[in-house]
Amino acid sequence: MNTELLNDLVQFTINISGNESDHYDLNTDIEKHIGITGDDATDYMLAFAKRYSVDLSDFDFDRHFDPEGAGWLFPDAINHHKTPVTIGMLLQVIERKKWLPDL
Known about the structure:
By secondary structure, the protein is mainly alpha-helical. The chain contains 4 helices and no strands. The radius of gyration is 13 Å and the shape is globular.
């Protein structure tokens, strides 16, 4: 594992989210553990793609994140079967330079 890249991704995530948790690891789910969801998740993923020159053309937002307002404004919009986006997954994407549908 590239520790320098991991540290950079964690710092990038802190800068975007404002969540300075002292515990980020490969299993950290950016929605569940950090609170990046809805429109913020869209902004995060676009900034992620730009910063790390990643092709997100195969990224399916609805497979990974709840929409803005899910839970409190739109209780039925919560996707209980979504695939989490973790720090480890994002590192794989950075190394591949492309989001793969199997993630």
